[in-house]
Structure formats: structure tokens, C-alpha cells
Amino acid sequence: EIVMTQSPATLSVSPGERATLSCRASQSVSSNVAWYQQKPGQAPRLLIYGAATRATGIPARFSGGGSGTEFTLTISSLQSEDFAVYYCQHYNTWPRRITFGQGTRLEIE
Amino acid sequence: QVQLQQWGAGLLKPSETLSLTCAVYGGSFSGYYWTWVHQPPGKGLEWIGEINHIENTNYNPSLKSRVTMSVDTSKNQFSLRLTSVTAADTAVYHCARGRGADAFDVWGQGTVVTVS
Predict the structure, then answer these.
(1) Is B75 helix (H, G, I), strand (E, B) or coil?
(2) Exposure check for chain B: N or C terminus, fewer CB within 10 A?
(3) What pLDDT was estimated at residue B8?
(4) Chain A hits for B94, Cβ within 8 Å
């Protein structure tokens, strides 16, 4: 089973600065990675799929990168509304498997 | 604009069966996989499984023995049953739409289920 490991667990950044979140897969997953944002009491929101494609309506300050086992989510200039928990997710078509990372909490420094 | 609205019992006793339903409004029901995800208090997300309109299913192997999903295409609804619940099944349960084989782009509001 593929394990997705996110780092760091908590990231403290000031508004206006850049934040880079990491996700490592226990084995190669090609580009089959998505990223979500979740705020307290809300459902997750899809940000990125296919490792680097922004979902509909997602601002350009969010970008995804990587392939194989190392992936990143970068937020270029943090806005107040960006402070939340972020999850990476691997997907496999056959056998069908979906696994999430444990999350990175992005907090205001 | 597609919206998902979910409901079901929020308080269960150990050994009972969890039952949740999610309705799809404002979009097509066929052509997608419909998914359930749960999130224990203070923890991360875990995929439970998915179903499409012709009832093809995929389940998380760790839950497969206790999970059944179904659809009602006449009402654009899909449902989750999880048998023999324990305190470990206490979580927020989310329904979601599979964007394709990759990610989940539309989510329900979440249902808090407590087993006690």
C-alpha cells in the first residue's frame, strides 16, 4: 500500500510570503496526486489534480509540482484566507486505491 | 452548479449500522463515481469507497467487509451502509463527486456520526 507523507506537520508563515508544502509517496505514483484545502468545519476543497493542474476557480497563486515520489504545493503570496490544513492525495486506477496524506497545518506566523 | 446534500443518523450504539444518503442536485448523475470519505475527530481523511450509476463499486480494503454502497438513479442519490460500528467509526462523513479517476471536485457538507 502506498503511503503519502506530508511535511512539515505545521508551517508558520507570514501573510504575503511564499509557502511550500511537501508530500512524499512511499513508491512512485507518476503524477497521480491531488491537493486539497480544508478549513475548520468545512469540507475539503480541491486545489490541484494531476500534480500540477489547478482546479476550476482556484487562484493562480496556488501551484503544484513534482512527479514520481516527491510533490509540492506552493502558495506564492499568502492571503489571510489561505491559512488552513492542506492534504495531498494519491489515486490509482487499478487496483483502485485512494490514500491521503496526514495533512499540513498552515498557520499565521 | 452541482451541489451535494447529505443526511443520516448522527448517533449510533456499538454494533449498529451506519446509514447515510447523499443527493445530487444541479448536474448529471451518470458518468461519475460518487464517493464517501470519513474524517475522525482531529485527524485526516480516509477514503471509504465509491460507486457509479450502474452500481460498479470500489471499496477501501480496510473497510470492505463492513461497507455497502448503493444508488437510486430515480432520485439522483447514493448511499452508504457501514455495519457493526465501533467507537473507531466516530467521524465526520463526507460524500463527494469523483472528477474522473483522480480527484474529488464537489463535496457535501459533512455529517457528524458518533458511536457511543
Answers:
(1) coil
(2) N
(3) 97
(4) 43-44
DSSP A29-46: -TT-EEEEEE-TTS--EE
- Please say whether the beta carbons of A27 and A2 come within 8 A: yes
Mean pLDDT of chain A: 96
Check B107 against A103: CB less than 8 A apart.
no
Cβ-nearest to A49 among B96, B102, B110:
B102
Q: Determine the average pLDDT of the residues in B6-14.
A: 97
B44, A91: Cβ pair inside 8 Å?
A: no
Contact check, Cβ <8 Å, B102/A91: yes
Pairing of strands A53-54, A62-67: unpaired
Answer yes or no: is pLDDT of A21 > 90: yes
**Tens digit of each residue's pLDDT (9 = 90 or more) over B59-93:** 999 999 999 999 999 999 999 999 999 999 999 99
